[in-house]
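Here is the promised in-class demo. Please do not try to memorize the tokens; focus on the logic of going from shape to residues.
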């Protein structure tokens, strides 16, 4: 078993040497779908760039024609993340379904556990470079999130949001 893990680690490491080749993309998808069987149906339409990390595979649903940029993190240990069709997620974006509890002043925060809430990203959404999507957020179909934004509340369909925290900038016409 250790030999298998070593060979697999070498393969995964080799992916980063050929980050944009068709072979590397297919190998990444194969390795991810090994953990998440229902992704295998969409292997040819999901594009996962290098250095993307998924935590809580069983809670992540990726629909067809999705692009996930380099170095993104999707954390879904105990709540679901759903990414709709034709969605672009730019590099270094973080999507996280958990946050620390902190309400008990007599207990250290590290011992208070987590609050887990699902995230839904609609279809035809564009999330810009280095955004953070926090627990419980729903991003409507056709929405755009500007680069470096922190999304703390729901984004209605066909709206453009940006900033820290993200606020409405305009609407798509």
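The designed amino acids, position by position:
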């Amino acid at each position: 078993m250790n030999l298998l893990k070593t060979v697999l680690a070498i393969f995964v490491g080799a992916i980063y040497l050929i980050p944009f080749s068709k072979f590397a993309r297919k190998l990444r998808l194969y390795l991810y779908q090994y953990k998440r069987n229902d992704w295998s149906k969409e292997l040819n339409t999901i594009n996962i760039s290098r250095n993307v990390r998924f935590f809580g595979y069983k809670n992540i649903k990726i629909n067809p024609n999705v692009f996930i940029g380099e170095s993104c993190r999707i954390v879904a240990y105990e709540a679901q993340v759903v990414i709709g069709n034709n969605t672009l997620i730019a590099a270094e974006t973080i999507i996280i379904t958990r946050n620390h509890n902190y309400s008990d002043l007599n207990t250290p925060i590290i011992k208070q556990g987590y609050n887990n809430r699902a995230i839904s990203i609609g279809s035809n959404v564009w999330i810009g470079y280095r955004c953070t999507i926090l627990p419980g957020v729903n991003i409507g179909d056709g929405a755009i999130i500007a680069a470096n934004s922190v999304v703390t509340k729901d984004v209605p369909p066909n709206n453009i949001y940006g900033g820290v925290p993200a606020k409405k900038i305009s609407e798509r016409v």
